[in-house]
């Protein structure tokens, strides 16, 4: 798969564009965390989207490693690094209750990831392991795109998109489109379904 994605110009183009736009999406919250650091307060921002995005990146990274897909490995490694920084900043400045909730969610993430790693390595073999993990990614990691919906109530109450920028939604749609194209050309149904679902939830 890795060789195909590198030597097929169209697939490689979609993969590179997907990487670039994905990194931009990962970097979109930078102004939010700059504000948190500057004010030394998390205000009413929530950590849930970042915790679930970290879980998403970790699981897709594992999936990419199994497939030896360098483009997926690259973008999800970057995603894990960036999200870890965001969460660290959030924990540093959050009040006690949100901080404890974030730590609890992180613990749940790592326990869940550990269980998936153990289960897929010792009970599912060969191609079935990739297939099984792919469906876990599609089923569980839709939360990456559902999680921001928790902010919708705040947007309606304040009549402001400050906490859910429209530009980010458009970036996610474009990002999803690139990965749908990439997955379609590789005939990887898991990539296609996951990012098609993401696009639908952001439109």
Strand portion, in percent? under 5%
Query: Roughly what percent helix?
Result: over 70%
| H/E series | HHHHHHHHHHH
Largest sheet: none
**Class derived from helix and strand content:** mainly alpha
User: pLDDT below 50 for ≥5 consecutive residues: which ranges?
Assistant: 196-203
Protein name: Bidirectional sugar transporter SWEET14
GO cellular component, one term: membrane
Pfam family, one: MtN3_slv
Membrane topology: Multi-pass membrane protein
Topology readout:
Layout lengths: L1 H6 L1 H19 L2 H10 L8 H20 L2 H24 L2 H27 L4 H14 L2 H4 L5 H7 L7 H21 L2 H14 L1
Description of the molecule:
Helices cover 82% and strands 0% of the residues. The chain contains eleven helices and no strands. Helix 5 runs antiparallel to helix 6, helix 7 runs parallel beside helix 11 and helix 10 packs antiparallel against helix 11. 32% of the residues are buried. The C terminus is likely disordered.
Concise synopsis of the structure shown:
This protein has about 200 residues and is mainly α. It has helices spanning about 1-5, 10-25, 30-40, 50-65, 70-95, 95-120, 125-140, 145, 150-160, 165-185, 190-200.
